[in-house]
Design a protein that fits this description.
single chain, alpha+beta, Aldehyde Oxidoreductase, domain 4, Aldehyde Oxidoreductase, domain 3, seven-stranded mixed beta sheet, five-stranded mixed beta sheet, 20 helices, disordered N terminus
């Protein structure tokens, strides 16, 4: 991130809980952001990647001779070249096991395909030239000779006995047969249930659609034998570790990652990609920096996709309507290769999140993770958390319909109660706090639940079908692990915070500065943030899993406490007192200072930092500075939760669906900055509405991507979204220093079920009881026609 200090004097006193505007925004809105494609290095060359136009086939040859004759082209490389150079491969980083205890059948993916192409977009070669245009001309001159093979694009179809086989050593295309839970106990619970609801639910595949396509620049310095990669990422420390260890096979100190501004990621830019190896290899061979920026059509096939699961969901209820057990049996589509965390969503994150905030005693999850001839799938905003909540909420809604129960009352009797905290869930999680029933009741009031019949009648008078839906959710965030919290008092009077998370649109600078201002009383306008330089880090978990403030906030708070310890000793010398008599306090203007207890003798923290730094001949036991470099160790995951209420209108003649009312009540624990939290919720809700009603990746039987541009892939526009009501009902988390719970992915978790439950409620009066996402006008129209015909 840029190192420019905040200068707005109106924000000097803003600490935790204040709605401080994002301090990053003025520079970004004025075009002063610095994204990877904005960087141009001296002597820079340009790279274009050659991708397979075939979904599946054996590579017979790659003719690069014509490409090398194109004016300006300096080199063309294939997978054989990278293999000969000794580069390593990419694979799944999760230690997952099959139900029989054997390890996952991992796939070692080379950066360029060598023997076989396995999806449209599979990179097979790359061209480097003096200009981008020359590199593109060279790429178009590369001749790829492939014997095409049959393709398979659906996970369930890949499991068929006669399905095309992607890998000779992976029978049945199955890389993982995951199982969690006591199958015998779950079966017994279903056997004694008074009612069982069963549903087939499709979790549609989506394109991530970050505003900024991926871009990177590779450099190599022969004098130091050191590599540098400028790249949009979610954490430079983790990416450096993966690239150095697995791909470059060099010590971490030989590889540097630099990330500036990032235009969105949502999980997609978290790990290594093939293009990064290509750039680094060419930079070393040619002795010049090499730059690559994807175009949007390339992003559609090369950026990892999200979601894509086929699920059989089951819920067992007793005679009173209380849940006895929930069971998910799924196919998970991993695409042609296993991304770093590709299998996580439909395995461990299903387990952690399917229970949501309900007191369900038994969980069973069975997932077959399959490879197919499609773009690899990895994390996308929520990464299994929204899905788990979605399945349970759809089951509850359908169970209420089947049993004639009030869906609100069914939720009430199944909610975990505050007096049950801490609650040990069958997933292994322990919920530390939450008032789930209170959140539900507040949401019902805010949404005017009881006034719905009047609105429904008004819609009917205009020929519209109106429905309402609830989306309760509880997410298990990623557990915060080692995170750097460095505080430096600079000579220019600013204070630098160094941390290993990374802002790719969230606005970290502002809440991190609020935490530091709250803890140390340093001027808010003097604080600056460094996140994107791996050389500055000794630890860093990156940003993902809604844990950034839990990790970096805790690291900053702990580092601030160490600053105060050093400050007491330094102040004791400066004020000529015993360290035991020195107290730290916030003054009337919110500024931190050290005071001799019981006196008015004091020194401000900024003045003290300056005196310590410039002291001549200081005493031996006096600190050389107030700077602290600290590593926060870890904390348990947290459990943000809430309730979304949605109302939709359907035009039955066309199937068009409009979201007309929306409100959410959320428990995100302690809220450091309400403005940013509400913005995060709005973003997640927008993406949830997009998946529910608009977005879906489509492939032909031959594996060709049919939705490869925004002419064929629909995103919601501003006019498709309603005003979104946001209310907060916090129960502070009890397992981290700040009491925060995370909020970045919660909007998706609440919106998917709220929207789809509302839609089914609207369609139910015409006999439709289920429809899969995305509920496009065509699908809605067909569902209505099918119901009327029946």
């Amino acid at each position: 991130m840029p190192d420019t200090a905040i200068t707005d004097p109106t924000t000097l006193k803003f600490g935790i809980g204040q709605p401080v505007p994002r301090q990053e925004d003025p520079a970004l809105l004025q075009g002063r952001g610095r994204y990877t494609d904005d960087i141009d290095l001296p002597g820079q060359l340009y790279c274009v990647v050659v991708r397979s136009p075939y979904a599946h086939g054996t590579i017979r040859g790659i003719d690069t001779s014509a490409a090398l004759e194109v004016p300006g082209v300096l080199g063309v490389w294939t997978g054989a070249d990278l293999q000969a150079a000794g580069f390593g491969t990419m694979s799944c980083v999760l230690p997952l096991k099959n139900r029989d205890g054997s390890p996952i059948r991992n796939i070692q993916r080379p950066s360029l395909a060598i023997d076989r192409v396995r999806f449209v977009g599979d990179p097979v070669a790359f061209v480097v030239a003096e200009t981008r245009a020359a590199a593109r001309d060279g790429a178009e001159a590369v001749l790829l000779d492939v014997d095409t093979l049959p393709a398979v694009t659906e996970a369930s179809a890949a499991a068929a006995p006669d399905a095309p086989r992607l890998y000779d050593d992976i029978p049945g295309n199955e890389v993982l047969d995951f199982h969690y839970g006591d199958a015998a106990k779950v079966e017994e619970a279903f056997g004694r249930a008074a009612h069982v609801t069963r549903m087939s639910i499709r979790n549609n595949r989506v394109v991530v659609c970050a505003m900024e396509p991926r871009s990177a620049i590779g450099e190599y310095d022969p004098a130091s034998d050191r590599w540098t990669l400028h790249v949009g990422s979610q954490g430079v420390f983790g990416l450096r570790g993966q690239m150095a260890k697995d791909i470059l096979k060099v010590p971490a100190e030989k590889f540097r990652v630099l990330t500036g501004n990032v235009g969105g990621s949502f999980g997609m830019k978290a790990h290594a990609y093939p293009e990064y190896t290509c750039l680094l290899h060419a930079a070393k061979v040619l002795g010049r920096p090499v730059k690559w920026t994807d175009d949007r059509s390339g992003s559609f096939v090369s950026d990892q996709h999200g979601r894509d699961h086929e699920v059989e969901a089951e819920l067992a209820l007793d005679a009173e309507g209380r849940a006895l057990a929930v069971r998910l049996t799924s196919f998970s589509n991993l695409g042609a290769y296993i991304a770093a965390v590709g299998p996580l969503m439909a395995t461990g994150n299903y387990v952690k999140n399917v229970q949501s905030n309900y007191a369900t005693p038994l969980i069973e999850v069975s997932t077959r993770c399959m490879v197919t001839n499609t773009t690899p799938v990895s994390a996308y905003r929520g990464a299994g958390r929204p899905e788990g909540n979605y399945y349970f909420e759809r089951l509850l809604e359908q169970a209420a319909r089947e049993t004639g129960r009030d869906p609100v009352e069914l939720r009430r009797i199944n909610h975990i109660k505050p007096e049950q905290m801490p609650f040990k869930a069958p997933s292994g999680s322990t919920y530390d706090s939450g008032d789930f029933g209170g959140v539900l009741e507040q949401a019902l009031r805010a949404a005017d639940w009881d006034g719905f019949p009047t609105r429904k009648a008004e819609s009917a008078a205009r020929g519209r079908l109106r429905g309402r839906g609830l989306g309760n959710f509880l997410e298990c965030t990623a557990p915060p692990s080692k995170e750097q919290g460095e505080i430096r008092f600079e000579a220019d009077g600013t204070v630098t915070v160094v941390t290993g998370t990374l802002d790719y649109g969230q606005g970290h600078w502002t809440p991190f500065a609020q935490v530091l201002h709250e803890k140390l009383g340093v001027p808010f306008g003097a604080i600056r943030l460094v996140q994107g330089d791996s050389d500055r880090l000794v630890a860093g978990g990156g940003t993902g899993g809604s844990k950034s403030l839990m990790a970096s906030g805790s690291a900053i708070a702990e580092a601030a406490a160490k600053v105060i310890e050093k400050g007491r000793l330094a102040a004791a010398h400066t004020l000529e007192a015993s360290p035991g008599d020195i107290e730290f306090e916030r003054g009337a203007e919110g500024n931190g200072r050290f005071v001799i207890a019981g006196t008015d003798r004091a020194i401000g923290i900024m003045e003290l930092a300056e005196r310590v730094r410039t002291a001549n001949d200081p005493p031996p036991d006096m600190p050389e500075s107030l700077d602290v470099k600290h590593v926060f160790e870890e904390a348990p995951m947290a459990y943000p939760n809430g309730c979304h209420v949605c109302e939709v209108e359907v035009e039955p003649e066309t199937g068009h669906v409009e979201v007309v009312r929306y409100v959410s009540v959320n428990d995100f624990g302690t809220i450091v900055n309400p403005l940013l939290v509400e913005g995060q919720a709005h973003g997640g809700i927008a993406q949830g509405i997009g998946q529910a009603l608009y977005e879906s990746v489509a492939y032909s039987e031959e594996g060709q991507l049919l939705s490869g541009s925004y002419q064929d892939y629909c995103l919601p526009r501003a006019g498709d979204l309603p005003d979104i009501g946001f209310l907060s009902r916090p129960s502070p988390c009890e397992t981290n220093l700040l009491g925060v719970k995370g909020c970045g992915e919660a909007g998706c978790a609440g919106s998917l079920p709220a929207v789809m439950n509302a839609l089914v409620d609207a369609l139910s009066e015409r006999g439709v009881t289920h429809i899969d996402m995305p509920a496009t006008p065509e699908r809605v129209w067909r569902a209505l026609q099918g119901a009327s015909a029946a």
